[in-house]
Design goal:
The complex is a heterodimer. Chain A is an alpha/beta fold. Chain A has 11 helices and 9 strands. The two termini of chain B are about 15 Å apart. In chain B, strand 2, helix 2 and strand 3 form a beta-alpha-beta unit. By secondary structure, chain B is α/β, with parallel strands linked by helices. Classes of the chains: A alpha/beta, B alpha/beta.
């Protein structure tokens, strides 16, 4: 088995075999969440900080539950309720938290590269829970886990990721990961939200959703980040919906057994129609469920089971 | 590190007779075999559990359910190995509460694996009893743990290793003692 990373800063530094190790470990750990006593002792005594500079419901509580199910102690900090609002720098905040003997820091920050920056002076394990428009590795891992659950493999799959690609760290991490595992990835969106340089990541670019969706195995819709639309990227929400919303009619052109994914939170009837979001083809809630197992796997592989082996 | 085989302790005939004897001990002691469940500790314990279950069915006509236990998440001991442990799935598809649980492992050494396994089982429910079956008891206990059923007791030195090979995964049945090369 190969997993020698100290941090999880992104998908980019991971090898295909390390990704597979995380997914396999998650598969083994998933069973714990269905037990009556949802807890195992492997991370007993480890201290983890959940440091969120941006709002989040899924990711933060998913990491928190993952840590608790492995018996670690976890403490939550958000921007509003901490000294950050008093003007403390990121570096000072981290050094102060680390002075309390933390073992891992999970960070979400609006600035791309901030997890890497922290890792240069910090001795705790750093886990990127989303940095600006850069990466969101655990989201890509749980997406891959969900795809593997349904499709059993990655090579030969046609995966369409559609929506606001420009602002999406989820899209970046997913393209990197899915290419490493051998899938074909097609990015779809209006030209202002889909710059051509994305093809450098190995993805194909298509501005026409109806065209791209033909024969797709997986369709991943991204949220229109209304909070980041201070510049005008498309003429109107109505036009966007007309061209890029996933509707029943559009979905019919995908493969028969195609699945629909969305990292959440969804804007119902903007990027995806309500009936599709709640349909049996939708695996949106499985993604959330799998998030806990995948994050348990990441925490275990980074923090758990030191260099030990039982004597036989 | 290179290893060499120091001695072959059991061949397939001896192993077969040991399995038969242990099975008889189990059926003698557990009057209500319908309340018995077998849990094998990954990896070899699972194969031993399967063989015991087959023999109980052959002798008594009762099918005893088998569960698989991975104790990685309950470990406490350390060694020279540099790689992190692979977690494999624990797969116990039945309730163990109020059951007579027969815990099965291949080699009993320090007893720490069994401690971890018992902690894990107790997190899954409250069994009526836990009994321990080991194929080889090689001594050097570090915890107060004593098996109920033993295939063979085998005095060993600490640095030696005992391998239980089973035809289901290792192509043949045998028990051997291995010692690191260059040691006397």
């Amino acid at each position: 088995m190969a997993f020698k990373q100290k941090h999880l800063l992104g998908i980019q530094p991971l090898s295909a075999s390390e990704i597979t190790t995380i997914l396999d470990t998650a598969e083994s750990l998933a069973e714990i969440s269905s037990r009556e006593v949802k807890k195992v002792p492997i991370l007993r005594g480890k201290t983890i900080i959940n440091l969120f500079y941006e709002p989040s419901t899924r990711t933060r509580s998913s990491f928190e539950l993952a840590a608790k199910r492995l018996s670690a102690d976890i403490s939550n900090f958000s921007k509003q309720s901490s000294s950050v609002s008093k003007g403390e720098t990121l570096k000072d905040t981290i050094l102060n938290l680390e002075a309390m003997n933390t073992d891992a820091i999970i960070i979400r920050h609006a600035f791309a590269g901030s997890p890497y920056f922290i890792s240069t002076f910090c001795s705790s394990h750093i886990i990127n829970a989303g940095d600006g428009s850069h990466e969101h590795p655990t989201q890509a891992l749980l997406d891959a886990f969900t795809i593997k659950q349904r499709k059993k493999k990655f090579s030969g799959l046609k995966i369409v990721i559609a929506g606001d690609i420009l602002h999406s760290r989820v899209a970046r991490s997913n393209v990197l990961l899915l290419k490493k595992l051998g899938a074909e990835v097609i990015l779809v969106g209006p030209p202002p939200l889909l710059p051509p340089y994305f093809s450098k990541l190995g993805a194909k670019i298509d501005y026409n959703l109806d065209h791209a969706i033909k024969g797709a195995d997986v369709i991943m819709m991204l949220r229109i980040q209304l909070e980041r639309q201070d510049k005008t990227f498309f003429p109107s929400l109505r036009e966007y919906r007309h061209l890029y919303s996933l509707t029943k009619e559009r979905f019919q052109n995908a493969k028969k057994d195609a699945i629909i994914m969305h990292p959440g939170p969804i804007n119902r009837d903007v990027e995806i129609s309500t009936d599709l979001a709640d349909s049996t083809e939708s695996v949106i809630l499985q993604q959330v469920e799998n998030g806990v197992a995948v994050r348990m796997a990441v925490l275990y592989l980074l923090l758990g089971g030191k260099e030990h082996e039982i004597a036989d | 590190m290179e290893e060499k085989i120091k001695a072959k302790i059991m061949d397939s005939g001896k192993i077969k007779r040991a399995f038969n004897r242990i099975t008889n001990e189990i059926t003698e002691r557990n009057r209500d075999l319908n309340n018995l469940v077998i849990i094998g500790i990954r990896t070899r314990g699972v194969f031993i559990a399967k063989r015991i279950s087959q023999l109980i069915e052959k002798f008594e006509g009762i099918e005893v359910p088998i569960g698989i236990l991975d104790i990685t998440l309950y470990r406490d001991d350390f060694s020279e190995r540099k790689e992190k442990h692979i977690v494999k799935q624990t797969k116990i598809d039945f309730s163990i509460t109020d059951k007579d649980v027969l815990l099965v492992d291949d080699v009993l050494f320090t007893g720490r694996t069994i401690r971890a396994a018992m902690d894990s089982i107790i997190d899954l429910g409250r069994p009526k009893t836990i009994q321990l079956l080991v194929f080889i008891d090689r001594g050097h206990r570090e915890l107060p743990i004593k098996p109920d059923y033993i295939g063979k007791s085998l005095p060993t030195s600490r640095r030696e290793k005992v391998r239980v090979k089973l035809k289901d995964i290792d192509k043949k049945d045998e028990v051997i003692i291995i010692e690191p090369a260059g040691m006397k």
